[in-house]
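Sanity check

After download, print the first record. It should look like this:
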Amino acid sequence: MQWQAYINTGVGVLSILGFAVAYMMISDTLIQSLLKEKQMAIKHQIIISGGSKLAYWLSHYFLDVITHALPAFITCCCVDVFQVDAP
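Expected structure tokens:
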């Protein structure tokens, strides 16, 4: 019974590490796209074309939510499938 607690803790730590790696990969991709966007002055082009700053930032927000929802959903499914019982 005592070993089961250690096993559950190990599985919990591994699942957290997997979740963190997924977010680091996504964050790196988002940062690279923001740097490329800064170099190409896309926000300036959108404002000149008649777009608003609110629409620009809301589109970034919704893209971030959608992009981060996928690993969060997969992690929740994996926790349920593998029956991870760790905080």
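If your output differs, re-run the checksum step. Summary of this record's structure: Residues 2-81 form one domain.
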